[in-house]
Amino acid sequence: TTNLGQGMEFNVIAAAVIGGANLAGGVGTAFGAVVGAFLIEVIRNSLILLGISTFWQGAFIGSFIIVAVTFDRLRKT
């Protein structure tokens, strides 16, 4: 359908960043994106099993993006 994948942008960006892609442009690998997607889904499923609301799930994944970007910045300096 035309709505397939709608609302998944946040998960895709999170998977790419956690997988090692640089938000400022640069190199990322397909393997890194797959590993990032796997980690995002493991985290999301764990939060669902713990009964955490979808709002806090998004906040938790967002914090992982911030941590990944921070580590990328620290690694570059």
Report what the structure shows.
The protein contains 3 helices and no strands. With 77 residues, the protein is mostly helical. The protein has a domain at 53-77.
Can you describe this structure in just a few lines?
This protein is mainly α. The protein has helices at 9-18, 30-49, 54-76. The protein is 69% helix and 0% strand.
Helix percent reads: 55-70%
pLDDT averaged over residues: 85
The secondary structure category is: mainly alpha
Low-confidence stretches: none
Order of secondary-structure elements: HHH
Taking Cα atoms only, what radius of gyration do you get, to the nearest Å?
13 Å
Beta content comes to under 5%
Strand segment count: 0
* Number of H- or I-type helical stretches: 3
State the major sheet.
none
Separation, N- and C-terminal Cα atoms: 45 Å
Global geometry: globular
Give the helices and strands, then pairings.
Blueprint: H1 9-18, H2 30-49, H3 54-76
Helix pairs in contact: 1-2, 1-3
Features:
3 helices, 0% strand, 77 residues
